């Protein structure tokens, strides 16, 4: 398996995980009584938080493995 294929697979998995977290956050916010715009904002925040965490972990691993 080439390095490009592994990178694309990991990026796809991270995007899927971020979308699942955003959907869960939006659904829980809506169940809690938030309006649709507020629930969408919480979902967007969760999506960006997962991507930020993934970037931080990737950066930390890259610096340790060098």
Largest sheet: none
Number of strands: 0
Low-confidence stretches: none
Average pLDDT level: 95
Q: What distance lies between the first and last C-alpha atoms, to the nearest angstrom? A: 22 Å
Order of helices and strands: HH
Oligomer: single chain
Give the percentage of residues in beta strands.
Answer: under 5%
Rg (C-alpha, Å): 15 Å
Number of helices: 2
What is the number of domains?
1
Fill in the keyword field for this structure.
elongated, 89% helix, mainly alpha, 2 helices, 66 residues
What's the structural blueprint in terms of helices and strands?
Blueprint: H1 3-31, H2 36-65
Helix pairs in contact: 1-2
Gist of the model:
This protein is mostly helical.
């Amino acid at each position: 398996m080439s390095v490009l294929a592994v990178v694309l697979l990991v990026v796809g998995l991270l995007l899927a995980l971020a979308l699942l977290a955003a959907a869960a956050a939006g659904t829980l916010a809506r169940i809690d009584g938030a309006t649709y715009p507020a629930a969408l904002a919480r979902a967007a925040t969760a999506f960006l938080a997962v991507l930020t965490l993934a970037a931080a972990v990737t950066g930390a691993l890259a610096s340790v493995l060098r």
